[in-house]
Amino acid sequence: MVKNFSIAIDGPSASGKSTVAKLIAKKLNFTYIDTGAMYRAFTLGVIEAGLDPKSEEESNSLIGKISISFDEENHITLNGKDVSQRVRENDVANNVSYIASYKGIRLHLVDLQRKIAKNKSVVMDGRDIGTYVLEDADLKIYQVATAEERAKRRYKENLEKGIETSFEACLDNINKRDYIDSHRSFCPLHPANDSVEINTTDMTIEEVVDAIIEIAKQRGLTNGK
Ligand code: CDP
Predict the structure, then answer these.
(1) DSSP secondary structure code for residue 185 in this structure
(2) 102 close to ligand 1 (CB < 6 Angstrom)
(3) 149-169 average pLDDT score
(4) CB 3.0-4.6 Å disulfide test: which of 57, 116, 191, 215 passes with 142?
């Protein structure tokens, strides 16, 4: 029987989790699951429905009424439509941490995340993967970098994607989301006790990927699929 493995990558906004997670999944032939994209898609659903993301009650009213999934190309979809570019826009980035602080929405999306991960080897990135969603993950990484470095990365990423922002706006958004994400009452952002912390401030993407693959090898996670 082939054994399935799971790698959880958590950390604050724009710490490079998704880029790294995607590359690791490719190298190990695991499925990549971007949980942040799911919270972003829900946020877009709230905005498109003309509801107020700052209202828990209004936002909760969409649970079960909108559908969020990944298509064959692993792009995030909202009600069947590919919204992977759209969810990176500022209106979503500025509201997603409110949506992610509502327990009902989290329980709903965590349920979906666990279903998607079932019977597969996965690399899942987010804020609460090692502490809650995949509590028994075979490897838990907690990726950090200074807020300035993260804002620099996000600013560059936005420029490449044609999203208009300034460095200051990126830094402001990152600081605000860090605060909300780590202070919410249900599943706040914090490292799991058994996670390995990697400070990526002065590391290239390749260095981070190599470091994680090395630990995965040591733990025998590359012998599955
Ligand atoms: O790409 P970036 O690091 O900026 O953010 P993301 O991973 O796309 O996540 C967007 C937001 O969703 C975060 O700021 C959190 O508020 C929320 N989130 C969460 O609460 N739990 C997760 N597992 C993933 C994301």
Answers:
(1) S
(2) no
(3) 94
(4) 191
